[in-house]
Amino acid sequence: MTDLIRSWVESANAPGTDFPLNNLPYGVFAADDGTMPRCGVAIGDRIFDLCAAEGDGLVTPAGHPVFDVPYWNDFMDLGHEAWAELRARLTGLLSEGAEPRPEYLVNQADVRMHMPFRVSEYTDFYASKNHAFNVGSMFRGSENALPPNWLHIPIGYNGRASSVVVSGTPVVRPNGQLKGPDDDAPRFGPSRRFDIELEMGAIVGQPSDGPITVAEAFDNIFGYVLLNDWSARDIQAWEYQPLGPFQAKATATTISPWIVTAAALEPFRIPTPAREVPLLPYLAEPAPMLYDITLEVGLTPEGGQETVLSRTNVRELYYSAAQQLAHHTSSGCPMRVGDLLGSGTISGADPDARGSLLEMSWGGKAPITLDTGESRSFIEDGDTLTLRGAALGKGYRIGFGACSGQVRPARPVTD
Amino acid sequence: MTDLIRSWVESANAPGTDFPLNNLPYGVFAADDGTMPRCGVAIGDRIFDLCAAEGDGLVTPAGHPVFDVPYWNDFMDLGHEAWAELRARLTGLLSEGAEPRPEYLVNQADVRMHMPFRVSEYTDFYASKNHAFNVGSMFRGSENALPPNWLHIPIGYNGRASSVVVSGTPVVRPNGQLKGPDDDAPRFGPSRRFDIELEMGAIVGQPSDGPITVAEAFDNIFGYVLLNDWSARDIQAWEYQPLGPFQAKATATTISPWIVTAAALEPFRIPTPAREVPLLPYLAEPAPMLYDITLEVGLTPEGGQETVLSRTNVRELYYSAAQQLAHHTSSGCPMRVGDLLGSGTISGADPDARGSLLEMSWGGKAPITLDTGESRSFIEDGDTLTLRGAALGKGYRIGFGACSGQVRPARPVTD
Questions:
Q1: Which of A123, B131, B138, B195 has the most CB atoms at less than 10 Å from its CB?
Q2: Does A185 contact chain B (CB < 8 Å)?
Q3: The CATH number of domain B122-408 is 3.60.21.10
Q4: What is the pLDDT of residue B415?
Q5: Domain A10-114, CATH
Q6: Cis bond leading into A174, ω under 30°?
Q7: Averaged pLDDT, B67-80
């Protein structure tokens, strides 16, 4: 485990910051002055303007500009050598003792964050055993909770890339077909069981055009974001057989604005949990490829105080993103720069470590009490849901920033 | 029903051609001379080179070039007025009596067709009742064949855009996890039940950023292609619960190279079949939005003769693409130019009108006999599968061209 690397940007040395020099997460920001969104790196409470630095020849990852655009895809496309060189260069430029260059710094408080990359396609997995067991228990009883394939396959389904939004984007409660078990026919109206899913998102940074190994998959992952896969449980319950969730998951998926690189998380690698049954060879991990990252979920009613609902850790995942990506390519499926892989909802074994309200309120049967005394089974209009996460080093944290969204009332339904 | 519109391109007036002047389908082609792929329109056995015509100011749909690129997305983005104007302009330029301009014609036989558009995202539906019933009968018995939601929802799932390829692209048989009902554990190897799905693909030509009506959805569809959603039935059977098909469908989806526009198909609009239960209002069709399009599937063993396996019609679909697209947006899901919607496998009621080998061979229990005397339950290596389709007018046909792919042996599996 490395120590804090000190920076001439003082706020990057503060104990609580998400963005010490060890982190260097990549994002896209725009100032209020009407300038176009462009690439930057978070350092303490500032952003180092990479577009400006590239313009001045201070960082030159390619023979052409790659930071004057509102996405990191062009840089990711350059490959591993460029990734390592930029990180080394930025570490040098921003280290304590280097020439301070405050002219490239922008206050995070003064800018608006945009999507950090163009999402090519979005896939969502189902890799936390506690979550799969909890949801399975509610839908099928504890005897048949875990599907028979679950211990063999990193189960996943394709999601909708067009619905991925950056933290801070309001989320309109979806309408959809709803049918209770005792209803004769479905009706169309606002979801009453609108929920979050606490996940990590892995970003594919290099393309592949056929099956790849788990080791190759690990190398192709550029970085990670927090990911909230908003889910309408009542829409899902009626639509999902036999082809899986569709409109229940298509309203929005919120990601945190900073890509925390695999390089920054390198000191926090841990193995996946012990296998309960042997994996097929194509899924075996040659080295630890999961991470020790603490996570929490907060709920803030409109105009109220936040209650932290849950605390858990990425280590709860049974499959790593590398295993998921390798499986994703097993049929020959081509992957592209900017593909986003959601881990699946991350739930620990304890009731206060669950990653969805569905599990926390056990399908609405055991409503949660907020710190304010109010109760919740699912999300109410005006609620803001916030995910946070960090890998905890010695005297520093590799933080993700907040992944947050407020739920707005559904659109009126007209016949 | 309109009559044949005669062209100065003689081959466009021949009775059997897929591409009379009434059709004007849009594609992307490249000559062998090393020039870049660019946009063209099929006319008889020729292609009218739109990139050259645009360069000379003969067609000018925008203030900037849109036909010098290897995709139709930029043109689709221009909207309905531009769509109608180009069709009118091309009809004028290519009509009998207009000044012949053979300098813009290229022989189809001399070029290679490319993907006609960039697929933003790909969604696959399940809209043929016979197909859903047949597959349901095999998997769950005829009592529970049709899922309870099927008559209420245009069931669909998200597919993988990166796997969509143009007709003529070889398809490598996928490897995947396979587990028979009597096996203790899955193994990893080549799919033994590799199959086709005979579908229509609808191409979204205008974006939307929230729920749209069925009428708006119809207007947003630019055109149609034939679509073969290659499917590994054995991979699917083991993986698909509870989140739907994933790697079983990710190897490849082949489309025909010419976008047949909604405008060309206008004379062939028909209503969807009578409802068996009332639809919710958001899915009601204000006018006929399905099409009368004949379809067929052919199988050619390597080095052998083709057997036509099946003949059916798009009218077998219970939901139109407009209904599917409206449902797709019902949760607020944003749609983008270039989104591709597969209809789902189209099967008629008769055994010789089925759109998949799974149904034709009834899960392998009743192998098909080819004209050559060979038999097939599923696809064998070297087989070429070809879809064809046409709307039949008075003395002309609006054809789609072939949607074809040869299956190659699986990659070797190494432990």
A1: B131
A2: yes
A3: no
A4: 62
A5: 2.30.30.230
A6: no
A7: 98
